[in-house]
UniProtKB/TrEMBL annotation:
It is found in: Cell membrane. This is Cobalamin biosynthesis protein CobD. Converts cobyric acid to cobinamide by the addition of aminopropanol on the F carboxylic group. NCBIfam families: cobal_cbiB, PRK01209.1-4. Belongs to the CobD/CbiB family.
Amino acid sequence: MDAVVGDPRRGHPVALFGRAAAALEKRLYGDARPNGVAHVAICVGAAAGLGALASAAGRTMTGSPKAAQAMTGVTKDGVGGPRAVVEIGVTAAATWAVLGGTTLAREGVRMAESLEAKDIEAARRRLPHLCGRDPRALEAPELARATVESLAENTSDAVVAPLFWGAVAGVPGLLAYRAINTLDAMVGHRSPRYERFGWAAAKLDDVANYVPARITGLLAVLAAPDRGRALRVLRRDGHRHPSPNAGRCEAAFAGALDVTLGGVNVYGSRIEHRPEMGDGPPPEVRDIRRAVRLTRTVSLTAAAIAVLVPALWPRHARRNRARGA
């Protein structure tokens, strides 16, 4: 659904959540960590609760087991019958709502098109769709690096992490993760206003992305033309990034694309010096499309794993129980 339809231009569920979270922030804001903890607890709890209600509704909109068996000829638990159809529909809708892989890839392509046409101003206007870096003084090489780094990090945030938490915790996991990630983008960055209020959102996002970021890095290694080089860069440089998670994604992409990421980043009045990752030259404009292809490959692989592992695991568990019996 995400690949075919993409994100709606208006009324996106994540945007609606963002507006609700911003309204709650106005009521709860205070320059203290407890205020931020309350804000995160209410927002994430509401998202997870909505997911639980949606799952429960899907399980109850199917009629009796006897009716299901009569209509489909399946077992009384409803597997493969109306109950399964409704539950799959609810899960599919929730997954589509939280995935952002298609939009991410499209933004990467648009950046490539603008830079290939040497339209620097257009590329600068597009960069805020990908990251929070100040684009006003960036030239083509810096714009290309920012795009590749954003594609790497957001492949985890927009695709792999939602699929991971959906596989682990179903619809509540999907919605809770997207709430956590959205709050981190809204209040989790360092600034005088959010240094303490946004602490809880930033820390919870780090926890939620710890495993998915490492899965993203390994999938990028598997998709790399030279897997040995990609793995070497991931293991050597992944921990050097200030973020405990983004560095794994960026290092793996750097090794897979044979480029060097990192350097000086400007965020408004704040300047950060990021360690360099990789052994190749700095990214060029042509590397953006290569990064987009890597993003799509990692995303499709993650989707396949998210479907196959939960589907095969119960069968494996039932087989082991039968042997034990």
